[in-house]
């Protein structure tokens, strides 16, 4: 099955000479959740804006569901739903009229049952006759999502969808995203919340300085680049790490009571058994040990630092 979104050699350079995007290649498969991670100014929003037709690119090609955005702009745009970072709504309109109007803008015939389904899924049905100005910030963001879904798109962009919302609403939105994917929708989200990508994404892309540094299956990325950490809580504090333990590149906590060892869990020899044996030989006793794995955030920070 062909990709729902294909991007080749995409570039964006402003008159000032600033390159917001350079040589971006990306292919998104139908039905996946793709998370695009990057610091502020990395190019995430510029990329989405170009795909959606609100910013003009200076190089490259883009097709959506097989439709080139230049030669079949209307067909491509009808297949895209966009939830931007900024809340842009008519504050005097009602929730129901806002979503109905958005559907009409795409030339779709009225479908009250579908609109009701969207509003119920987003817990907005009871607020359907409320004016936008009467809603909380979280509810307004839900209306933005309802607008984006009103014309039944195949590809949904969520640009920082949970920025500024509380934890409970964030998890409600995660549940909604999963539900949309179960219906066959493809979702691309940008986020500063690493746990959002770790929780939901099938694949992860890391962008920085306008360049796509990496695109990888999330689980494969965690296996390939994730480290595990062994923390040993000692019976008695150490002033320094003995020279005899130098080969393990240990870190001694400031209190002298914890030795920290980072290792590759996928390696044939992690070095952990040999470390514990050597400590026993040296008479360094520990009263507790704990292992933890690197998070996606650790991997992201490491990638961005290397590219800087």
TrEMBL record:
Taxonomy, superkingdom: Bacteria
Pfam families the record matches: ABC_tran
Domain ABC transporter residues, every copy: 5-234
InterPro entries (alphabetical): AAA+_ATPase, ABC_transporter-like_ATP-bd, ABC_transporter-like_CS, ABC_transporter_ATP-binding, P-loop_NTPase
Record bears the keyword Aminoacyl-tRNA synthetase: no
Alphabetical UniProt keywords: ATP-binding, Nucleotide-binding, Transport
Molecular function per GO: ATP binding; ATP hydrolysis activity
Protein name: ABC-2 type transport system ATP-binding protein
Coiled coil stretches, renumbered: none
Matches recorded under SUPFAM superfamilies: P-loop containing nucleoside triphosphate hydrolases
The keyword Transport appears for this protein: yes
